[in-house]
Amino acid sequence: MGYKSLAACVADLEKHGHLVRIKEEVDPYLEMAAIHMRVYDQQGPALYFENIKGSKFPAVSNLFGTLDRSKFMFRDTLDHVKKLVDVKMDPMSVLKNPFNYVGSSLVALGALPWKKRAGSPILYGQTKITELPQIVNWPMDGGAFVTMPQVYSEDVDKPGIMGANLGMYRIQLSGNEYIPNEEIGLHYQLHRGIGVHQTKANELGRPLKVSIFVGGPPSHPLSAVMPLPEGLSEMIFAGTLGNRRFRYFYDDEGFCISSDADFVITGTVYPNENKPEGPFGDHIGYYSLVHPFPLMKVHKVYHRQNPIWSFTVVGRPPQEDTSFGALIHEITGSAIPKEINGLHAVHAVDAAGVHPLLFAIGSERYTPYQKVERPQELLTIANQILGKNQLSLAKYLFIASQQDSPALDIHNVESFLSHMLERIDWTRDVHFQTKTTIDTLDYTGDGLNAGSKVVFAAVGDKKVDLLKEITAQFDLPRPFQHAKLALPGVLVLDGVAFESYEAEQLKVEEWKKACRDTDWNGIKLIVLADDAEFTAKNSDNFVWVTFTRSNPAYDIYGVDSFTEFKHWGCKGPLIIDARTKPHHAPALIKDETVEKRVDQLGAKGASLHGII
To answer: Residue 90: its pLDDT value, please?
Structure first.
């Protein structure tokens, strides 16, 4: 069905048992986020906060907390959207071949944005930044943030909504050096459409007009996070998925306004005007620290009658953005593999914070006349993956051949890694990219956006039986001891904290010498961790620690390692040093006092009794 507003969505969810109201007064400082996380962990309902301390506006969260709830919200349009993804959301393609898309063409035509100001609900009233819910998620956050925004900008060379970008970039409302009600922080990372727009505006010495939409039909925030091909309009997608054309107009100052939004913040971003933004607890499970980011000078804050503030909580996966990802996969299916020849599947591993770790399956078709004994086409595919939009932010890419195991599942961490480790040849199949770009939120590298990548490619028959049970042979010498088996063939060790790269390189080399008589049969990967028991407890902990706390070029070692004509390899197990380094950002830790307050909402007679 097509929701006209966020309020209509809330009413529909409540009617069908997908939403609960929290009537007690809640504190936007830490408490609302803690409530959200507790309910999300239980795969509970969407949450409507009626009484927020310090704000007259109610708020909603966890709308997309489960895939089933997302499917419910878009129950009448999801199948149409999947068909339209096949034509890359281009209504003109549908018009040229209408009989190929019977049942979908009308949806595509009806998705074109509609410029309509008369009677627009968003013009009901205006407010100030300080009157919005000042939600702070984590104890060390630098202030209140908008965590479910739709940030709208236009291309100065191609003005108008069809060339515009709608993205979800965090907005800092308070704290740091921002002048209250006059300035807010605009944070965006690499490979974001708004960056292209600001670059062009800067070159012309012109301010960039930015509009931030909050709320509106649920198809709007989803559109802001969809990985659409460059040049395709998020507003068309919003209209298609929501079965309601994206309604907009331009106000008297020339800002684009979403008519169906609950709130719209307008402002300008001037060339070379930045201010410190952060810290902020982010989706990798650590804080992103303070850095200069674009400063947005606020013009107006519009709101509709009885508006609802929409928010989410960002932290170590799984969180609501995990469910966003599941919905995106449901919609796009094999869209990305279709754009890279030979690629069958690619998966950004959510438990590892999404960007640090990719699993992929490709074809080996270069030499059908002979048995494939080493990666060939897989390496070509890997290079394309690491050059593709946000996939290029990955640090670790494991890629296997579809011919070796047609049933291989990239979503099963243990089986996929076992398949790789059974086949990989560390002397040949390790390929580094050094001094390159990584995710802005990843602090394992040697600077903001800077780090390294590695591709592990494996083809052919099984070469080794992976160890599945630790024996006495792994009573290892200091300083790396306390061996735990995390996965078949994967050993996790702890014993000493990281000091510096200079000291640790010597330490690791001495330890390898001390282990020269160790029988590594069945062990392919060794991970050095701060806490081996925690790291090996389950596969989620393992991939989170291993791949969010290491920089490939700096932190990969190997037993019997060598460099041959600039190619690095090792004859024994590969070693990843995943201990916390001094330059890493701190991990996210909940406030226990706040957690105890949340407990009270689960008591008999309270709003969340029976849910948490």
So the answer is: 54
